């Protein structure tokens, strides 16, 4: 039985880590370690809920509801998810990360209960939503990009003005020091024509003040 529990914990950590890796690649608030811990913790709670009270039941003949601990996990993860949601300048940030933290907890509970196929399928579906739908949204719906750029120090206003001259609308999200001679800038860039994402990135790289640029 111990080997079975160990397998469930390992599988829950792997599935949570895969989702966390996607978030970390996108430089989101909750990364690999957070998702692994959520997966392991949720699986452990479910294992305790299903199997941790057999000794009490055998001697006292007390009936227990195994769903109560799972319900409390959902409540607790809700607080974690809320901590990832930020409101800045009328813009809500972190909703997707909060949602996948919630999904990771659900996957951990499913694996902890022994429903491996459901957990694996749920992970695959979550990755499809996070990656494929992100591409579809950028391509067909919002026509905007969330970009992360490393720029030369002291060139922020020049870079923003230059991007505007290229025909894009840009909204600065954050600016932080990277090194003494570089800043890290994140911004939303909106465009209205049929320009591809690769073309936009290529055009931005032509500016010598922009050292690196990627989709965040």
TrEMBL record:
Pfam families: MgtC (PF02308). Keywords: Cell inner membrane, Cell membrane, Membrane, Transmembrane, Transmembrane helix. This is Protein MgtC. The chain crosses the membrane at residues 6-22, 34-54, 69-87, 118-141. InterPro entries: MgtC/SapB/SrpB/YhiD_fam (IPR003416), MgtC_SapB_SrpB_YhiD_N (IPR049177). It is a multi-pass membrane protein. GO terms for cellular component: plasma membrane. Its main location: membrane. It is found in: Cell inner membrane; Cell membrane. The lineage of its organism: Bacteria, Pseudomonadati, Pseudomonadota, Gammaproteobacteria, Enterobacterales. Belongs to the MgtC/SapB family. The keyword Glycosyltransferase does not apply.
